[in-house]
Each structure stands twice: as C-alpha cells, then as structure tokens.
Write a structure and sequence with these properties.
The structure holds two protein chains of two kinds. By secondary structure, chain A is α/β, with parallel strands linked by helices. Chain A has two domains: 2-145, no CATH class; 157-267, no CATH class. Chain A is 32% helix and 13% strand. In chain A, β6 (76-81), α3 (83-94) and β7 form a beta-alpha-beta unit. The radius of gyration of chain A is 20 Å and the shape is globular. Chain B folds into five domains: 3-132, Rossmann fold, CATH 3.40.50.960; 141-233 and 317-332 and 508-574, FAD/NAD(P)-binding domain (3-Layer(bba) Sandwich); 247-305, no CATH class; 333-506, FAD/NAD(P)-binding domain (3-Layer(bba) Sandwich), CATH 3.50.50.60; 583-663, 2-Layer Sandwich (Alpha-Beta Plaits), CATH 3.30.70.20. Helices cover 26% and strands 25% of the residues of chain B. Chain B has a five-stranded parallel β-sheet with strand order 10-7-6-18-29. Chain B has a five-stranded parallel β-sheet with strand order 20-27-21-22-23. A four-stranded parallel β-sheet of chain B has the order 2-1-3-4, with helices on both faces. The chains are: A alpha/beta, B alpha/beta. At the A-B interface, loops of A face α15 and α17 of B.
C-alpha cells in the first residue's frame, strides 16, 4: 500500500499524469473509486480485497478525459488496475477508445476480491469472477505493485450453473431466462457499469426507428438483455461489474461467461489479452470455423 | 404523398400462382396509394407507357412495381419513372416472381403473400429520399491476370484498341498451357507456330506492360478505379541487361537438377533456366532452391560467363502498384494428378491406376510433351521408363472428370477431342502401333469436331472401346489394363506398353485465394463464377472484373480466345465514357453519435471507411469518428449491420425505410 501511495505521489508531483483513478477507503471493508489530482491526496489511496470496481469504465467518460486535457495537450491518466481491469483497458485500446501512451497503468498483483463490501475475505466470500481467474499478475503495465498471494480455491458455481442450463431443453432454458429477465426494470445500471458500453448513443435509446423495444414486457426484457449480451459477444472480458450493478440480481455473468467460452472454443480468442491480436469481431480468417453460423 | 402500384403478371410467371388482379385491387386501399393496376407485361413498351401516363395524369410522387427481381428490371422501371418526371430512387420493386410465385404453388396464400410484399414496398417508398447518382472517373488501363492464350488475346485486343494494358504472369514466360501442346485439334496445326508470334507481339507492343514472374498481391478500389499491388519476384537477373544469350544456362554446373515443369517433369533443368527456348521474355530465372551460390556462397559460374554483368544474386522482390480501370482474369486451369491425396481432401486419387507410381502411365500434358517436336524426346514416341517405342498405347478418358467419387462431377469438355488427337498423332508416327481409347461418351460438339473423331476411328484405325477401366497393373514389363466393353458386354484386358490418362481439368491451386484477393465469387471446384450463366457469361459479379478462358470452366482454345476477345470488348465498353455513373447507395456516418470504435473500418471489404478527426472551435481534436469515402463505398451495408449504435446509415436502405418495411408486415 505504501509503495502505491509513494508511486502515485511521484507521478503527480512529476506531472507524469494529470490524475490517478484509484480506490480510497470508506471503512475497513469498503472502498470507493476516486480521482486523485493532488500529490497530497495520494496518501488516501488503498488497494485490498475490497477494491471491487473496475475503474476502466471511467477512462472513456468525457469528464475524466477532460481532466487529462490541460493547456491544449493530452496528459496521461493513471489507473490503479487489477489484472482483470487491465483486460478492459486493452479491449478499449483495441477498439480505438484509448491510446496506450495516454494511460499509465499501475498494475496490482491480485489474489481475488470479495463478493460484496463488508464480507470477510475467504474462499466462501470470493467473488464468482475470481474463482476461474487465471491472471493474477498484470499483463500490460507501467509498474507492478502489491504482494503475490495465493487465491483461495473453491468450486466454480457459475460454471456448474451453465452446465445445468445446457442440460435443459430449449423450452426450459427460455423459461429460465424469461423469469430472470422479467425482473429487469430497465435501469441500465449494467450498461453504465460496463467499461465496454461506451457508445455515445446506445442502440436502445435510438427512437427513430426503435429497433430495441423498451416495454416492461417479456419482449422488451428479452430485447434489452439479449442485445446487451450480443453486443458484448467476443468483447466482454468478464469483470462482472454488470451483474454487481444489477439491483434485481439478474445472473448476467451466465451469458457473459458462456459467450466468452464459446469464443475461446471456436476461435481460440480471449478478449482483452493482447494488443497484437486483431479483435474477434471485425476480423476474418479463411480458416475460421463456421460452425456457429446458422 | 401519392403512390402508384403496378402489378405485373410476367406472362404466366407471376400470373399462374398469384392472382394479380386481386393483388392490384387489394392495394388500392393501402394508405397513400392513389392508383393500383395490373398488366400482363409491365416491362413491355405498353406497360411502361401505362406507368408513365399514370404518373403524369395523377401527379404521382412515387411508384411501387410488383414484378420480377430488381436485379432484372429495376433499371427499366426507374428509367420509365425518370421519363415521367420522378426521382429514380422513389421507385420500389416488390419481387413477386423470385420471392413469391416461383417458390409457391398455392394461389390463395401466394396472393396473400404478394399483397404483403407490395404493402411493405409501399411503406418503404413513403420514406424513400430522392437521391442523385454519383459520378466517378474511369482509369482507362486494363490489368490482365494470366499470360496464357486467353490473357494474350485479351491484352492484344485491348492494346490494339488504343488502351494501356498491364499483363501479369506468374511463370517466367507467357504462353501458358498452349505453349506446351504439340498439335491442336481439329486442324492439327502446330501449337507453338500459331502461338509464339502472338507472344512476341505482346512483348513488342508499345501499350502492353508485360510483367512475368509476378503475382497480384492486393486489389483495392472498384470498377474504373482499382489500385493493384503486384509482386515482381526476384529473377536474380537484371532484365535490362540480359540479352537472352543463354550462356549462363549452358554453363550452370548445378548437379542436383530440378524437374522441368514445362516438360511436365519428364526432363530436368539447371538452377538458371528459361522454361522453354521460345520463352517470352527470353530472360532466365535463377532458382534459389537449387542454386549452389545460395547453398554455400560458392560457384558463381553464371556471373563469370555473363558478359553483360546481368546476374544479381542480391536482387529482391519488387512491389509495384498500378492504377487500373478494368481487370480481366485469365488464370487458366491445371491438370488433375492421380496421386494419393490427403484423407481429408475432398478430391481423391486413383489407387486403381497406381496413384501415379507407374512411369509409363502418363497424363495428357505429358503425352503432349512426348509428341512435341520441341519436347524431351524431340517428338519421337518413347516411353518415359526405358525410352522404347510403345507398340500398344491405351488412352483412358474421363479420369477424374464426371466422377463424383473422385471429387468432380463435371465434364472436362476437351478430353474427347485431345484424346482423338493423341491417338491420331501416335498412329501417324508409329504405323505398326495399336491405339485403344476407353470412353464413356464421345462429346465432340463443335465445328469440324465430330468429323475429327470419326477420322481418328475410320482413317487412322484407332480402336474405341466404350467402357471404364477398373484397374491398371504392371506385369512382365507390360501394363495390364483391365476394363469393360459395355457395348460387347464383356470384360477386356489389354497388355499395353503405355497408358495415357485424360485427367480432369481443374481450377488452379490458388484459384480461391486469388478470387478472395480480387473479390470475385467462385464455385465449389474453384472455377470463377460468371454474373449470369446465359446473358452475362463474361462478367464476374464484381463490377469491372471480367473472366476469360478456363478459369471460369473447362474450355478449349477457340472458346478461350473468343471469351478473351469478349472480355476485352467489355473492358472497352467501360472505357467508352470518361465518367461512370454509380448508384448513390452509399453509407454515411452520423458523426455526432459515432463513438469511434471503428468496427466499420475493420469489416469494410472495400477499404472505404476512414478515420476523421473532429475538432472543437479552437482547432483541438476532441474525437475521432468514422468517415465513409463515397467513391470507394459499394453500398454493401456491412458497416451498418456492424455498427453497435446504428450510427452508420445506408442511403436508399436507411434504418427508417427498412423498419417501416418490416413493421408493415
């Protein structure tokens, strides 16, 4: 923690970065995102198992971007990032939303976070996205901080649920998702929390014509939730922020995880892992499998 | 808005399965429709006049024609609309033929469907926006890919009409397969004698830029405005200095020689070589894979003997770009080989004929080389294994062709003729020899063709046996050919000295890769697809790309030459005007909504999407958005489908129009 604060202070003092997106403590078992612009505030930064937010979502927000614009030049933005958050940053760079040279990545070694604030960190309270996680060290970074610790190993409940759904008939599956989506209140918190939902005008908000129905009816519920999933297929890096943001507890990670696994099986592609690989959506190889096309 | 609806019976094509008067009557009541009529042939002169009269009389704003596919007559009806004073893009076609009458048989339900289709078109046309056509310039230069007889003919025709041609050939010399042939049917004139003067004409033509040993790497742009990237492979010999004396070839001491592919592997060549003595250009190539200089840095004999200092071991491949208006693809064919194929290959080899392990079981092109005066045997009939004169030769037709189990169901078309020619040539030189031909059917349609086959049978005594050969095997220095005579209804066994297989003509190995480079469709065999099998056999479906010769399907020389001249004529039609009119169906970006993810740029097959910087009032770039170059956009709509926020629209098919069309259903 001390080295993080020291590094952040140096960055701000040397004017290497205009601001640092990081976490500050609310109480010992709760943090909140913060934008640190003054060197003296660097001492407020923390990093622990309660740093749940994926801060990459802020990188594309106009207000944050404007902080980096000073005297007509673009300064760097610093971000305190878990390895999974870095995957989001990579996906954003691949989709032309960021430039690598504009971002200073403070990569944190990570052994998992809790499901929710206030919980004691243990195998039982480990966030479900952390259970199958293989990247405990930052892939791309400007500095790596934090100690390396063992992630508690627990059974993969999301995977078990996916396998259970795969055993269902199409009718049963439809019924299952219909019931889940019926809870949706269209608050679009999932969209707001997603780092990859950076469109200036979401297709759901397009009204002339309205392609995506927004009624509180099964049709509208399916329209939104299926379009959200489709628009993230081959792109979602699995940070799980949509599900955490959902006030109605819709299990969005089931869809996200299944899509990511399909992309991996069919095209050996995992989103947000490499700046050199072309994105799955928008690239074509003659050898690509066409199994998934109807 | 006043809309006119016109329902065509298309003779009986639509009228048989769609109750056209009922459709017209039902559409009268659609909101916005002022008049709804039906007629037997709407595309005919009276039909068109009916449309024009109604537009003028009723002051219509837009029309919907329920007829055949827009592919067929959209232009016709647009022209009629323009004549009567309305914008051509306020014409919608409801496809009542291909989408309705031809695919259904119940008259009631297909009539209901026809009404739905018209209603959808009416809703769309209400939202259509008048558009104006885009004019683009035409680069009056032609690229011909492939320097066989088709490519040569096309290049000469275009160049002689006064336009520049770039002729690209993969091999070190032009001439193609025709230069390998001994004599040609049905006149038996020498192939080289009629071809080589053409090759020289190409070489000396002031308007033909000949690029041999070169390959097309990239094709960008569109009709009239292609930019083509060509890789000129390193010959390791300076083309400007070399005089073609051939001293380097005769002195080359390479011990481990390579098969001479021009001689169909029946002879060897040194590391520095020209494919054949009459090659054009007569400039050798150094084969890096066997040249001793590249192995151990020694030798350099060619450098010592070359008086012109033309040898350049360090020459690199050159990348050349050319501005082109029309492309003629004349890449030809290759012959199927009977050797064992990988298990997962859709094409199979012939185990029953020995998978190519018998030296004296040769294919048609190998036989051409044996029969050719310039071939490895100087035209004397000697079999490859021991050089003896074969006294009994069996010719087998349809090896691969018309054989689904081997991967090809088509007829290679030329084998009936060239087998008759082969047998005839053999009999002319080996008077005491016996020639047998196993055939399935004799397909000899063409001027003087059947007479030619009859001559082989009747005058030259070639014995034709109708039936297939089930097996060839070696026994006591003979090849036992076991087959069936289906006319006599009994098995036959011939102890041959040599067997000639008329193997299938197949697409070039890299045919599909080249098709993807150029952006033209191809069939499951790798032959290039024409735009219409009857009415547009020369054009590919890509504008400005024309096909010539056997790259489209198996063809003989006269057909290839005819097709090449036709392709040249198509290119010249294109060059007949200085500007091309293009449909304004192009994409445009809503810059205020574009998030700049550039997925549209990644998926655009025409490279039409560019990055545009948006600046604030101080001139500072605050975002980057997609921008569509309307000159390059072909209106395929891939970007509009890809855009996650629907910030790209396609003129003529915008979101509102399409949505209204769907909503009307």
């Amino acid at each position: 923690m001390e080295e993080l604060r020291k590094h952040a202070k140096e960055l701000l003092e040397n004017k290497t970065v205009a601001a640092i997106l990081g976490y500050v403590e609310v109480d010992p078992k709760r943090t909140r995102p913060a934008v640190i612009t003054k060197p003296e505030d660097a001492s407020k930064l923390v990093f622990n198992e309660y740093c749940l937010n994926n801060l990459a979502v802020y990188l594309t927000k106009a207000r944050i971007k404007n902080i980096a614009k000073q005297n007509g030049a673009v300064m760097k933005l610093g971000i305190v990032a878990k390895p999974c958050d870095i995957h989001s940053v990579i996906a954003l760079i691949q989709e032309s939303q960021l430039k690598r040279e504009d971002i200073h990545i403070i990569g944190m070694n990570c052994h998992g976070v809790v499901k929710d604030f206030g919980m004691e960190f243990s195998g039982e309270t480990l966030a479900s996205k952390c259970v199958p996680c293989e990247s405990h060290k930052p892939l791309y970074h400007d500095i790596v901080l934090g100690e390396e610790k063992q992630t508690p190993s627990v059974s993969d409940e999301v995977l078990a649920k996916i396998q259970a759904i795969e055993k269902m008939t199409y009718e049963e599956r439809f019924e299952y998702f219909k019931n889940e989506f019926d809870k949706c209140i269209k608050c679009y918190a999932c969209r707001a929390a997603c780092p990859l939902c950076y469109c200036q005008r979401c297709i759901t908000d397009k009204t002339i014509p309205r392609w995506i129905e927004s009624s509180p009816h099964s049709r509208g519920n399916f329209s939104w939730n299926v379009v959200r999933a489709f628009h993230l297929s081959g792109r979602c890096i699995g940070c799980g922020e949509c599900e955490r943001a959902c006030p109605m507890d819709i299990p969005l990670s089931l869809l996200n995880r299944k899509m990511a696994e399909t992309a991996k099986e069919a095209y050996a592609y995992v989103s947000g892992r490499s700046l050199e690989t072309p994105t799955l959506v928008g690239s074509y190889d003659v050898k690509d499998s066409d199994e998934l096309f109807m | 808005m006043k809309i006119g609806v016109f329902i065509c019976h298309c003779g009986e094509n639509i009228g048989r399965t769609v109750d056209c008067p009922r459709v017209a009557k039902a559409c009268e009541w659609l909101p916005g429709v002022d008049v709804s009529l039906d007629y037997k042939y709407m595309c005919s002169d009276p039909g068109q006049n009916m449309i024009k009269d109604e537009i003028r009389k009723r002051k219509l704003d837009a029309i919907v024609v329920g007829s055949c596919s827009p592919h067929m007559h959209e232009k016709t009806f647009r022209k009629a609309a323009v004549d009567a004073g309305i914008n051509p893009f306020l014409v919608e076609i409801a496809n009542l033929r291909e989408h309705c009458s031809w695919v259904h048989d119940d008259i009631d339900s297909s009539t209901d469907k026809a009404i739905d289709l018209v209603r959808m078109a009416v809703e769309k046309v209400k939202r259509n926006v008048p558009l104006t056509t885009i004019e683009v310039p035409v680069t009056k230069r032609t690229l011909v890919i492939g320097g066989g007889i088709a490519g040569i003919q096309a290049a000469l025709d275009v160049a002689n009409a006064g336009y520049e041609v770039v002729l690209v050939e993969k091999e070190p010399s032009i001439g193609g397969h025709m230069s390998q042939l001994s004599e040609t049917f049905p006149t038996l004139d020498c192939s080289q004698c009629i071809l080589t003067p053409r090759m020289v004409e190409v070489y000396q033509h002031p308007r033909i830029k000949l690029m041999t040993y070169s390959e097309v790497e990239k094709v960008e742009g569109f009709i009239g405005n292609f930019t083509v990237t060509i890789r000129k492979k390193a010959r390791h010999i300076d083309e400007d200095k070399c005089t073609g004396c051939g001293l380097c070839i005769t002195k080359c001491p390479t011990k481990k020689k390579a098969f001479n592919s021009f001689e169909e592997d029946l002879a060897y060549r040194p590391a520095v070589y020209v494919p054949f003595p009459q090659a054009v250009p007569n400039i050798p190539v150094i084969d890096e894979t066997i040249c001793m200089y590249y192995k151990n840095g020694k030798c350099g004999m060619c450098v010592k003997v070359c008086g012109r200092e033309a040898i350049d071991f360090h020459q690199q491949d050159k990348i050349v770009t050319e501005e082109i208006g029309a492309i003629i693809v004349a890449t030809g064919y290759k012959l199927y080989k009977i050797d064992k194929k990988p298990d997962d290959s859709p094409i199979k080899g012939y185990g029953e004929y020995g998978y190519g392990k018998y030296k004296d079981v040769v294919d048609g092109l190998q036989f051409e080389r044996i029969a050719s005066a310039s071939g490895p045997t100087s035209g004397e009939f000697k079999r490859p294994s021991d050089g003896k004169e074969p006294k009994k030769v069996v010719f087998i037709q349809c090896v691969g062709s018309r054989d689904e189990s081997k991967g090809f169901s088509y007829c290679s078309k030329i084998c009936c003729m060239y087998t008759a020619k082969h047998a005839m040539l053999y009999k002319h030189k080996v008077h005491d020899g016996e020639a047998y031909v196993f055939y399935m059917d004799i397909r000899s349609g063409g001027k003087m063709y059947d007479e030619f086959v009859r001559r082989a049978i009747e005058e030259d005594g070639v014995k034709y046996i109708r039936g297939r050969v089930s097996r060839i095997y070696e026994k006591d220095g003979k090849y036992i050919v076991r087959g069936e005579d289906t006319i006599a209804g009994m098995p036959v066994e011939i102890d041959a000295d040599m067997v000639v297989l008329a193997t299938a003509m197949i697409a070039q190995q890299d045919a599909s890769e080249l098709a993807q480079t150029i952006g033209i469709p191809y069939d499951k065999y790798g032959f290039y697809n024409e735009a219409h099998p009857k009415l547009r056999p020369i054009e590919s479906t890509t504008g400005g790309v024309f096909l010539a010769g056997a790259c489209q399907s198996p063809k003989d020389i006269p057909e290839s030459v005819a097709m090449a001249s036709a392709a040249a004529a198509k290119a010249l039609v294109l060059f007949g005007s200085d500007k091309l009119e293009r449909e304004p169906v192009v994409a445009y970006v809503n810059e205020s909504l574009c998030a700049g993810c550039f997925y549209c740029k990644k998926v655009c097959p025409y490279g039409a999407v560019e990055v545009k910087e948006v600046k604030d009032r101080n001139g500072v770039v605050y975002k980057e958005v997609a921008y569509v170059n309307t000159g390059l956009c072909q209106g395929c709509g891939t970007c509009t489908a890809t855009c996650p926020s629907k910030s790209v629209e396609l003129a003529g098919f915008n979101n509102e129009e399409i949505f209204a069309q769907i909503a009307a259903l």
